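Usage

Read records sequentially. Each one opens with the input sequence:
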Amino acid sequence: MPKNRYRNKEVKFFVTGHEMEMIDKKAAIAELDRSKYLRKMALEGYIIKQDFSQVEQLVYEVNKIGNNINQVARRANEVEYVSLDDIKYLKKQLEGIYGQIEKFYDGG
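and closes with the structure output:
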């Protein structure tokens, strides 16, 4: 390496073939060579860390509702009748889910 280089520190890391292809594609889209692209991403890029705990809770609640709907449907098939209380209960649970979805999309 020439001594008079502006950038005289070398950084090495390993990637898979697929990762290299992805880096090259992104560099091409940015109209940069690989070295410039990686330097720019290392210095100016950012990582978005997403918290999916609300989504996991939402999935859990939706699964609960699905189980309850199945129970009501099973009962309706057995006795050919669904009570108003069952419908009100399911409606209340769905309203709770809608509230959680709104809260999620509002960043809450």
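Summary fields computed downstream for this record:
- Helices lie at 17-29, 34-44, 53-79, 84-105.
- DSSP finds four helices and no strands in the chain.
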